[in-house]
Amino acid sequence: MKPIVKKVLAGIAVVSALASVVAGREKPTVVEPQPVARIDTRLQVADDLDLAKLENRVDEGAKVDAFAPRNFSPIVPAREAHARPARPEAPPLPFRYIGKMLDGDKLSVFIANGGESFAVAAGDRIGDYRIESVTEAEIRFTYLPLKTKQSLPL
User: Fold this and answer.
1) Mean pLDDT, residues 90-118 taken together
2) Closest among 108, 152, 106 to 129, alpha carbons compared
3) Which of 89, 90, 93, 126 could form a disulfide with 148 if both were Cys (CB 3.0 to 4.6 A apart)?
4) What SS3 string covers the chain?
5) Do the Cβ atoms of 120 and 134 come closer than 8 Å?
6) What is the CA radius of gyration of the chain?
7) How much is the mean pLDDT over the chain?
């Protein structure tokens, strides 16, 4: 072993021995309890408090069955409970505009639905949609299940 390592180990041994000797000679410190000031924790009652009303409420509460079934659902006003269901609406258009082409005087427009693309003209049908008209500004669709008109701006 190297001499430096021996010296370090010897120092650690000496410190450990001293710590074990000192550890046994410690005296416990005794702390005497200090007197604590008394605090009045009683409720302060106002002079204008009507105790008879409180006693009546306690008596009424004793008559209630704690294990009776209860309904905690919110109270719905009668007119909302009998309201007509909302009219179904067409879903938003699934198409997006890609481009347009003019062939003579006939305008064809290219639209995409997800990964598919279509060249459409007025009168064509794609799924649940029928193309009503194609103009320079927009494409007018009819959602066939609800006969709802929708437009896609170009």
Assistant:
1) 88
2) 152
3) 90
4) CCHHHHHHHHHHHHHHHHHHHHHHCCCCCCCCCCCCCCCCCCCCCCCCCCHHHHHHHHHHHHCCCCCCCCCCCCCCCHHHHCCCCCCCCCCCCCCEEEEEEEECCEEEEEEEECCEEEEECCCCEECCEEEEEECCCEEEEEECCCCEEEEEEC
5) yes
6) 44
7) 81
Cα separation, 141 vs 102, whole angstroms? 20
Exposure b/e, 97-111, CB count within 10 A at least 16 = b: eeeeeeeeeebbbeb
Residue 61 has pLDDT above 80, yes or no: no
CB 120 within 8 A of CB 102: no
Which residues lie closer than 8 Å to 124 by C-beta, 6 or more apart?
Answer: 118, 130, 131
Summarize pLDDT for 2-40 with one digit per residue, the tens: 788 888 889 999 888 877 776 666 677 788 888 877 877
